[in-house]
Amino acid sequence: MINYIIQVMLFQVLFLIVYDFVLSKETFFAKNRWYLLMSAIMSFCIPFIQIPSFQKVVSNDARILLPEIVLSPQSMIEKTEIYQNFNGGLIVFWLGFLFFLGLFTFKVFKLIILIIKNSIEKKDSYTLIMLPNSKKAFSFFNYIFLGTDINELEKEKIISHELIHCKQKHSLDLLFFESLKILMWFNPLLYIYQKRITTVHEYISDAIILKSADKKLYMNTLVNQLFDVENISFVNQFYKHSQLKKRIMMITKEKSNKMKQIKYLLLVPILASMLFYTACSNTKNEIIEKEVIPFTMIDKAPTFPGCPENDKSCFNKKMQQHFQKEFDVNLTDSLKLSPGKKRIIMLFKI
To answer: Residues 99, 105, 107, 112: what is their CA dihedral angle, to the nearest 10 degrees?
Structure first.
């Protein structure tokens, strides 16, 4: 499991590096949205993908299984002390999971309270929630939350902007990453992913609005209005201080040349390298299971010092003596193994 988590995080780092340094500066907002969603999904799936042609490239070492060695029962088998063996890491994981699940539940409950307590206006394609004495402006699915302190001229622009979030189901994207953050709460890359896709959502809405709105007036709306910000990570907010500069830069930026879409082809060698990496990792993990050969089946035995050449019996006897002499009898204590008989398997590599 630890190897799987490391692989997932490694792949997410690579995907985010490509996005930040190659794709984020282009105006292909819809494609960038799908890139962030699909790369996050692929990072969890790639470790399970096995391509036989890649695995054949990785050489497997043969390993020889020696006969079983039984140590003194008095030194290894009988234990009077009872050990309580538990996985501390698993407990920490579940505590974190429950905490972030509780935090998510609290945020959802907070939204429900806002819907119940405040004035509701049913529209054709959305529901408008008026927030008294507030300048907040955000949306969640088909609910648009709007502060009553926002002037009437700005309300229409904000609603048009938030309606795009509603129609394009941007809330699903945010809930997807919110779910991943609960399951993998210790992974900081998921927070970066959610931040990136939230910004892309704003780019998409801004670009659609500007097809029928004056660019300068729209930018004035962003700059002049100081809206409050709702501290809920899975809602689309019209105004957010951290995104303001980026949004204005994208509004004033010329559309990217369509030829620059070739940058997305970078995914081909990146995915190939990821698949090759997983093939190498999985092959190494499976060597012991697939390539173990019984000691009695080898044609020529290794020669232990003091034994005649190719004398399996002598080699086996000397190896057992060597093992019993050198083995750390306190190993079970240091590994915190439970009481009982243990099997020790000796392997050597050709």
So the answer is: -170
Average pLDDT value over all residues in the chain: 80
Single pTM value for the model: 0.70
Contacts of 348 by beta carbon, 8 Å cutoff, 6+ apart: 63, 64, 66, 302
| Main-chain phi, psi angles of 7, to 5 degrees | -65, -45
Is residue 299's pLDDT more than 70? yes
Closest alpha carbon to 128 in 145, 108, 116, 113: 145
CB < 8 Å & 24+ apart, contacts of 175-183: 175/234, 176/37, 176/40, 177/40, 177/234, 178/104, 178/233, 178/234, 180/40, 181/100, 182/97, 182/100, 182/101, 182/104, 183/97
Structure tokens at 190: 């998921």
What span, in angstroms and rounded, lies between the C-alpha atoms of 150 and 153? Answer: 8
Q: CA-CA distance, 185 to 96, in Å (whole number)?
A: 7
For residue 55, what pLDDT is reported?
56
**Chain length of the chain:** 350
SS3 284: helix
* Amino acid residing at 39: S
Name the burial class of residue 116, with classes exposed (0-12), middle (13-18) and buried (19+) by CB atoms within 10 angstroms of its CB: exposed
pLDDT digit string (tens) for 278-288? 877 665 554 44
| CA-angle at 208, arms to 203 and 209, nearest 5° | 100
Q: Mind giving me the DSSP string for 74-102?
A: HHHT---SPP----HHHHHHHHHHHHHHH
Please report which helix (H) or strand (E) contains residue 17, including its range: helix 2-18
Q: What would the pLDDT profile of 208-235 be if each residue is shown by its tens digit?
A: 988 887 787 777 766 665 555 666 777 7
Do residues 166 and 160 make contact, with C-beta atoms less than 8 angstroms apart?
Answer: no
Confidence of residue 81 (pLDDT cuts 50, 70, 90): very low
